[in-house]
Amino acid sequence: MTGVQTCALPICFPVTIPVQLKRTLEAWYRTSILKLDYKSCEMIARELHSQLISQWSGRDYVIEVSEDGENGCRIYFPKDIHVKRD
């Protein structure tokens, strides 16, 4: 991912993320709706997608999770794909 990063908690967002969405994501992690724990980047992306579609379905998502700017994942979730929640 290129560009300036803004960070809160251990989560970084690209500058282009809408402020309201950024605050929502930060709240989900702060209040433990979503947890980072010891999950892989892929697991974090899938869990985040599951939460996002519960709020805003019918959209394509591209979720990028980076551990250290070097290792990570970028997953494309078409709007017709639903990941089961545990």
Structure description:
The chain has one domain. The protein has 86 residues and is an alpha+beta fold. The longest helix has 15 residues, at 41-55. The protein has helices at residues 19-30, 41-55, and strands spanning 5-8, 11-14, 61-66, 72-77. The strands form two sheets. It has a two-stranded antiparallel ribbon. A hairpin with a 5-residue loop joins strand 3 and strand 4. Residues 1-9 have low confidence and may be disordered. It is globular and about 30 Å long.
Residue share in β-strands:
15-25%
User: Into which percent range does the helicity of residues fall?
Assistant: 25-40%
Strand count: 4
* Category from helices, strands and their pairing: alpha+beta
Q: Order of strands in the sheet with the most strands?
A: 1-2
User: How many domains in all?
Assistant: 1
- Topology order in helix (H) and strand (E) letters: EEHHEE
Gyration radius, rounded: 12 Å
Shape: globular
Total DSSP helices: 2
Largest sheet: 2 strands, antiparallel
Mean pLDDT reading: 78
- Which residues form runs of ≥5 with pLDDT under 50? 1-9
- Distance between the terminal alpha carbons, to the nearest Å? 29 Å
